[in-house]
Amino acid sequence: MNFLQEPTAILFDLDGTLVDSLPDLFAATNRLLADLGRPAVSGQDLRQWVGDGAAALVERALTATGGLPEGGMAPMVRRFLDHYRGHTADESRPYPGVAETLALLRRRGHRLGVCTNKPTALSLELLGALDLLPFFLAVVGGDTAPARKPDPRHLWATLEAMGCAGAKALMVGDSLNDVAAARAAGLPVVVMSFGYCRGDPGALGADAVIDDFARLLDGSQG
């Protein structure tokens, strides 16, 4: 990789890229389903549903366990968020090498931000609990951006919040949303093979697929 030969603004996805957040999303989803008297879903099911924001996750879980409720989605999403809030980092952990790699990237002059479809407040809670928040100039969730990934405006809004509008930039993620958003924004994109991709990460059309977070340093001078 040669994307990081000079100081670059790097946009990171959160779930499945920086943090394995599946355990706590799994717990909150099944608490919601238990409230409704519905069967629990499996972790493998949930892995396929993560990445499009809380509302999409809840809708997929409800559809799989009996259909959408008559009262609409909004109350269900609120109840899910109530279960998840305050528990974002009970079992969730950064992937191996994340903190060390972020520290080295910062030391080498790269500017870092988080561009995630997760709600901003929950993203800040999770990153703060895992001591990752100080690495980032901005965290822009899907609820505070003008549009969410795969819309490129989410990436542009994050770069602007970082003070990096128009700067050389790179997207790092794990899903088709990340690749599609980067392509639409005209940015190169690296995909992590260990995330929550639905299907083969190598088939997403990224510029590179890596299986170790620390390999981002392969293309960084310093």
Layout of secondary structure:
Layout: E1 9-12, E2 19-20, H1 22-35, H2 43-49, H3 54-64, H4 74-84, E3 93-94, H5 98-107, E4 111-115, H6 120-129, E5 138-140, H7 152-161, E6 169-173, H8 176-185, E7 189-192, E8 208-210
Parallel strand pairs: 1-4, 1-6, 4-5, 6-7, 7-8
Antiparallel strand pairs: 2-3
Helix pairs in contact: 1-4, 3-4, 7-8
What brief labels describe this structure?
8 strands; two-stranded antiparallel sheet; DNA polymerase, domain 1; elongated; 6-stranded parallel sheet; 8 helices; 222 residues; alpha/beta; Rossmann fold
Walkthrough of the structure:
- This protein has 222 residues and is an alpha/beta fold.
- The protein has two domains: 9-20 and 92-219, Rossmann fold, CATH 3.40.50.1000; 22-84, DNA polymerase, domain 1, CATH 1.10.150.
- The protein is 37% helix and 13% strand.
- It has eight helices and eight strands.
- It has helices at 22-35, 43-49, 54-64, 74-84, 98-107, 120-129, 152-161, 176-185, and strands spanning 9-12, 19-20, 93-94, 111-115, 138-140, 169-173, 189-192, 208-210.
- A six-stranded parallel β-sheet has the order 5-4-1-6-7-8, sandwiched between helices. The chain has a two-stranded antiparallel ribbon with strand order 2-3.
- Strand 4 (111-115), helix 6 and strand 5 form a beta-alpha-beta unit.
- Helix 1 packs across helix 4 and helix 3 (54-64) crosses helix 4.
- The radius of gyration is 17 Å and the shape is elongated.
